[in-house]
Amino acid sequence: MGEFKLRIRRDGGGGGGWSEREVDEVEAAPAPAPSPAPSAAAPAAAASDEVDVPAPLLGNFYAAPRPGEPPFVAVGDKVGPDTTIGIIEVMKLMNPIRAGVAGTITALLAENGTAVEEGQALIRVKVDG
Asked: Where does this protein have compositionally biased stretches of type Low complexity (predicted)?
């Protein structure tokens, strides 16, 4: 590293002026290792006749249209490809999320009001047929 000089001046003192002295090279303290993010229990893998409906974008997932209202869907509900299963808020814009498949909901995988990643499973559907 290059040479480092530090000048300190005291105001209000009667004399003095500038003082110079050399400072030894100092190494930065090592940064603590980041703690791993708390991970929710990973859902069990989908059966062969089930599909997970993924979040199409990153944001906050809401299972109901407004706080205090019933959720869009529940376990056991029949859904079609155009059924709204929730909304994802991105920068105050609410984006409806569609099931994209026809079948019966077997699991709700994302909690209401939580942040979700793009591709994260939101619900699991047992496919008709």
From this structure: 38-48
